[in-house]
Write a structure and sequence with these properties.
Belongs to the four-carbon acid sugar kinase family. GO terms for molecular function: ATP binding; kinase activity. Pfam families: NBD_C, SBD_N. Keywords: ATP-binding, Carbohydrate metabolism, Kinase, Nucleotide-binding, Transferase. This protein is globular. The chain folds into two domains: 227 residues, Rossmann fold; 183 residues, Molybdenum Cofactor Biosythetic Enzyme, Chain A. The strands form two sheets. The protein has a 15-stranded mixed beta sheet with strand order 9-10-5-11-4-1-3-2-16-17-18-15-12-14-13, with helices on both faces. 49% of the residues are buried. It is of the alpha/beta class. It contains 16 helices and 18 strands.
């Protein structure tokens, strides 16, 4: 099986790609456009398009389609955010217009990770999506819970829906829905899912149909794709990560409530020193910014020399930073981008200065900035330490074992688990007390 994955941010590229590793496949996440593709049949492209407007998002996805070799045995997967952030409707439009399949199947649910869809409505940890912090996202707020409505408004095309009741009736019912959609020129179809087996069923039913499809979903859906195409899950585990005597570096760019709670758990670890980057100083004058850089480097030097691990994170005073940005003519999104950029820049300085070889990155923008600034061309996925929290290899002038995590993913202790894994051998969630 050949598969190409297009993801709108880096952590999404990673948490979807690692699902394929479980089948003994070796996906490669492409970080830089300069990378020359080799023999691998599974490439994951980070289009970095989540915050783009609809038209720009469409154009960027259409451009990336040119990089994909179209063939009868190639599966095309559009990784979308499980909380529906971004211009998903326009991105699936671009894929449909370029490749001309019969349908694009849109299934953002990830039940085992708290994303459930019932009668078109998306629930995040049992709360309607529009009632969660996703509605206040500084870059890509989502104001509806109805996934069908979101895709319809963004794509400006007709969108059908497959309900749980349809799934319960089996393959024949699903095939009849597809037949009706084909006859009525409906090409986009959203799907309910309350349990993981619902995603498995939709993949099996549609794969066995006479229609061609492009899949669009979260890490939950893609897990079931290889099996439907004849691959068996590999139950063997990867070799432990070698021990390292150097300090590990955590870079926390996500402002999500869940991510901040995980950070607080990490900072309670007596072996970890917190390095809080003051966001208002970063977007101030160059002199103020330089002083903030120097302070963080100085505190890092003390921590490393005394055997501590480092946790670099931006301050939580987001609104103050936005107000400061307004004074110099910056929009909310530009302030957020600037904070991610400098958090990444400081992280890269620390990695080089202290020869960091164990790394944890959370927040797609921040993770991308760190890898891009290091000049890394690819990220080789290895395994995951918790559902949706992958570990892999970055190759610079040395090997850097790296864990990445979307802001809202993971349990309360995921960062401490990541530290234990990075320092002394990879352990699965069930193996860590």
């Amino acid at each position: 099986m050949k598969i190409s994955i297009l993801a709108d941010d880096l952590t999404g590229a990673n948490d979807s790609g690692v699902q394929i590793v479980k089948y003994g496949l070796t996906p490669i996440v492409i970080i830089q456009d300069t990378f020359q593709k080799q023999k691998e049949d599974i490439y994951i492209y980070n289009t970095d398009s989540r915050t783009l407007t609809g038209e720009r998002s469409y154009n960027k996805i259409f451009e990336y389609c040119n990089k994909i070799e179209d063939s009868d045995d190639r599966v095309i997967y559009k990784k979308i955010d499980s909380t529906m952030r971004g211009s998903i409707g326009q991105e699936v439009n671009a894929l449909y217009d370029y490749f001309c399949p019969d349908f694009v199947i849109i299934a953002p649910g990830h039940p085992s990770n708290g994303r459930k869809i019932v009668n078109k409505m998306l629930y995040l940890n049992n709360t309607l999506l529009h009632e969660t912090e996703v509605a206040q996202d500084p870059k890509t707020p989502v104001f509806y819970s109805d996934i069908n409505k979101i895709i319809m408004e963004q794509s400006q095309r007709k969108v059908a829906h497959i309900y749980l009741e349809d799934l319960k009736k089996g393959k024949e019912k699903i095939w009849n829905i597809l037949k009706d959609c084909k006859e009525n020129n409906i090409n986009h179809i959203t799907v309910d899912s309350v349990e993981d087996h619902h995603l498995k069923e939709i993949v099996e039913h549609i794969k066995s149909s006479p229609y061609s499809v492009i899949w669009a979903g979260s890490a939950g859906l893609i897990y079931h794709i290889p099996n439907a195409y004849g691959y068996m899950e590999n139950t063997s585990t990867m070799s432990p990560i070698p021990e390292s005597v150097r300090s590990a570096l955590f870079v926390i760019g996500s402002m999500s409530k869940n991510g901040r709670e995980q950070l607080q758990q990490l900072l309670q670890n007596s072996n970890v020193i917190g390095l809080e980057m003051q966001s208002t100083k970063i977007i101030d004058t160059s002199d103020t910014r330089k002083k903030e850089f120097n302070r963080i480097i100085s505190e890092s030097k003390y921590a490393v020399e005394n055997g501590y691990h480092l946790a670099l994170f931006s301050s939580s005073d987001a609104e103050k930073a936005v107000e400061k940005g307004k004074e110099i003519g910056l929009s909310r999104i530009e302030v957020s981008d600037l904070i991610s950029y400098y958090l990444g820049k400081i992280a890269d300085d620390l990695i080089i200065k202290f020869q960091i070889d164990r790394l944890f990155l959370t927040g797609g923008d921040t993770a991308f900035q760190v890898m891009k600034n290091l000049g890394v061309e690819t990220f080789q996925l290895m395994d995951e330490i918790e559902p949706g929290v992958p570990v892999g290899l970055l190759q610079t002038n040395k090997t850097i074992y790296t864990v990445t995590k979307a802001g809202n993913f993971g349990g309360d202790t995921v960062m401490n688990k990541a530290l234990a894994s990075l320092k002394g051998g990879l352990k699965k969630e069930a193996d860590i007390d």
